[in-house]
Amino acid sequence: MISQSMMLKLDPLQKFLKSVDRFNDLVVSVYVTAGHILLSAYMWCLFREPKSCVMSWQKKNLEM
Question: Which of 24, 35, 60, 64 is 20 to 30 A from residue 16's alpha carbon, by CA?
Fold first, then answer.
């Protein structure tokens, strides 16, 4: 982590690149979290009512 005093010494390009890096970290964490949520929901549905869950998933894929 960069301290505030070090951040003041960085030139504008370095500040911009650091901001982009932090944004990329945020995007990746949101993407991974969404994937885990979808996987958890699918697994829950699969264990609860396997037949209806698989049929509804196949129906949605056929509509695309």
Answer: 35
